[in-house]
Amino acid sequence: xxxxxxxxxxxxxxxxxxxHAGSDGAGRQDGLLWYKDTGQHVNGEFSMAVVQANNLLExxxxxxSGALSFLDAGPCGTFIGVYDGHGGPETACYxxxxxxxxxxxxxxxxxxxxxxxxxxxxxxxxxxxxxxxTAEWPVKxxxxxxxxxxxxxxxxxxxxxxxxxxxxRAVLGRLVKVTGEVLAVQISAEHNVGIExxxxxxxxxxxxxxxxVVLRHNVWRVKGLIQVCRSIGDVYLKKPEFNREPLxxxxxxxxxxxxxxxxxxxxxxxxxxxxxxxxxxFASDGLWEHLSxxxxxxxxxxxxxxGSARRLVKTAMQEAAKKREMRYSDLKKIDRGVRxxxxxxxxxxxxxxxxxxxSRASLNRGPAASVRGGGVNLxxxxxxxxxxxx
Length: 390
Prior knowledge:
Blueprint: H1 2-13, E1 28-30, E2 33-41, E3 44-51, E4 59-67, E5 76-86, H2 90-110, H3 115-136, E6 147-148, E7 150-156, E8 159-165, E9 169-176, E10 181-186, H4 196-205, E11 213-216, E12 219-222, E13 232-233, E14 267-272, E15 277-283, H5 285-288, H6 293-301, H7 308-323, H8 328-331, E16 346-352, H9 355-359, E17 369-373, H10 380-387
Antiparallel strand pairs: 1-2, 2-3, 3-16, 4-5, 4-17, 5-6, 5-7, 6-13, 7-8, 8-14, 9-10, 9-15, 11-12, 15-16
């Protein structure tokens, strides 16, 4: 079982077969920043960037373009995933390895894309990670306290599907023809108890527990532990049999619980894409901590498509530096781990929408693309060392 965990961890950082670090196909590395300035997907172009702040990168992401099922005549389009891990990288890596294939499996069964396909894919991914935790618990019990936000977008048949658990965010840039402005429209629903309606919803679901959300150091947290109330993983707050020794004391609740505290049920929106929809920004909360929706849309709209995700990451880092009254150039010199005191891991994917391609998407099955973003490559010995310390 230890070897299974080691393989899972290795998959987070080692380049996929057939792609080479530094090449245009795999993206490029600049210190703690990974980026792919431009690529082609079925419905247009895309740009990706990831900057690491944690000692081990906890953000993972992917763009998959082409077939969305295992059937020759099945749906095709573009899949976008942003997975913001917490407590460690294992859950985000697992999602990166399994969610898209789960989606393809259920899309094959229904021979279509739908909200139900997304919902089933999330549940299958959650169940799969539960199995990993169950297998690893006797030797690596802290994996029960690892989880991930999970933001997914699917463009198929001229329709946009967005599913989310956690506090990553999808924002649409929409052209207003009368004024020529491109306005930001938030597509995803977030699940952070710092948002009052989210907090009240969780309280209403657990009326017997006055401590279901706790304010500590001016931050609302579920049971005083975590800010998000929906996630993949975080088994210690979903199954009481994992909230006990030898899990670290800081994660163990004083009493048991009869029903899951956190949920993996995604909030799903489905809407037709319009000719005036220009682009989509999918990003972890590391970006939105420093930029508003409209600021992000303006940066994309006012610059060239090439490198748009990297510009968003750079602007967020510049804002982080300003908040600490330091220069951006000095912030870039700070190594991972220590960097987390200044900003979070940041993942950004910008998806440009070509209305001509979208309108004939059912006939257009290319170009195929499969890109996973992010990761300062770690040696096997480094990964092994980490896996024994969980």
